[in-house]
Amino acid sequence: MRRMDFALSETQEITRKTVRDFAEREIVPKSMEYDESQEFPHAWAKKMGELGLMGVFVPEKYGGAGLDSVSYAITIEELSRADASAGVIAAVCNGLVCEPILKYGTEDQKEAYLAPVARGEWIGAYALTEPGSGSDAAAMRSTAALEGDTWVLNGTKAFVTNATVAKIVIAYARTGPKKHDISAFIIPTDARGFSVLKKENKMGIRASDTALLGFDNLRLPRECLLGEIHKGFTIAMATLDGGRIGIAAQSLGIAQRALEESLKYSKEREAFGQRIADLQGIQWKLTDMATEIEAARLLTYRAARMKDEGHRHTYESSVAKLFASEASHRAVDHAVQIHAGYGFIKDYIVEKLYRDQRVTEIYEGTSEIQRLVIARSVLGK
User: Fold this and answer.
1) Residue 170 contacts by C-beta under 8 Å, 6 or more apart in sequence?
2) Residue 40: phi, psi to the nearest 5?
3) How many CB atoms lie within 10 A of CB 214?
4) Which residues contact 134 (CB under 8 A, 6 or more apart)?
């Protein structure tokens, strides 16, 4: 049986303090403003890059911080505690862009693309979902055909985070007749035939842009293929294993903020001649929130540690993502209820937390997909 050590290293503790201090100073004061305007927070992204938060586990020789996946989870947790948009901007650049290039890219690709993203000079995006294929990613209809030394891509990609500001997009397209004949590509967004068709008007995480992309006879050099031909589906699924750790950490940060705001409010608000924190009904809500957050944190850090140790972590990442996102849902729901009427008012951050949280149960694989992944493992399939 593997020994489980729950203590964080000194580097991981320093990472938490560094990101917490940065987030309190730079992100929290502007959070509500960006939520209202839906403006992409370029200043946040630039400063996150300068701190190494856009390439946490990218080796230093490629412009990253050279830290581990637990430090990455802590980073996304702390950024998301301040603002979930900051968390997902960093999570996409780290887990969905840098990681597949680091793992499957050629040395030329690593040198060309990793450093600018890891340093925050470029924003990256990830395009897998299509209007007609979400959870069933292999049903995609976008195509890529090789004409001489040029790939020609056609199709549409939906719900692409960071899309309107990205310099590169990791995108997937069908390259053969079989269901899993899918390949991955690194697409510069200034390529002819690339277009942003629509920026979505979202319920939450509004400072992180999400868009519909179009590829119209998009022509790419042969060397823009990421990994081997027809192996893109494998790359996508492996990338999502790591990406789910990021969304579990994001869920954790949102839930932690909900608990902190609820504790503060319940100690200040009085009803029936006493603080509402002294009422058993409120105490039990706070207790449930604290307990589930502790459990979610352990599950998330366990998945991150297994990734660091080189173990397969599909099951652990899905368990962490499922539990953390649904625990976060319960936490923000309790937070709004504790704030009562004020929880429904935009002047209070719990209203924003409630909206931001909801997508954590949808993207990077819905809760239903996580249950399918977990069931296959439990049943030994």
Assistant:
1) 96, 97, 100, 101, 124, 125, 126, 127, 184, 185, 186, 187, 226, 239
2) -70, 130
3) 16
4) 158, 159, 366
Catalytic residue, chosen from 99, 130, 361, 364, is 364
Q: Where are the domains of the chain?
A: 10-122, 125-230, 235-378
326: annotated active-site residue: no
Report the CATH number of the 10-122 domain: 1.10.540.10
**Residues 185, 153: contact at Cβ < 8 Å?**
yes
- Per-residue pLDDT of 154-196, as tens digits, reads 999 999 999 999 999 999 999 999 999 999 999 999 999 999 9
> Which one of 3.30.428.70, 2.40.110.10, 3.40.50.2020, 3.40.190.10 gives the CATH number of domain 125-230?
2.40.110.10
CB-based contact 300:262 (threshold 8 Å): no
Query: Among all chains, which residue has been given the structure tokens 């505690």?
Result: 81
pLDDT for residue 381? 65
* Residues 6 or more apart in contact with residue 10 via CB below 8 angstroms: none
- 44 exposure class (CB count in 10 Å sphere: 0-12, 13-18, 19+): buried
The two structure tokens encoding residue 282? 């409120």
Structure tokens at 84: 């979930």
CB 61 within 8 A of CB 120: no
Domain over 235-378 is classified CATH 1.20.140.10: yes
The most distant pair of C-alpha atoms in the chain lies apart, rounded to whole Å, by: 80
pTM for the full model?
A: 0.95
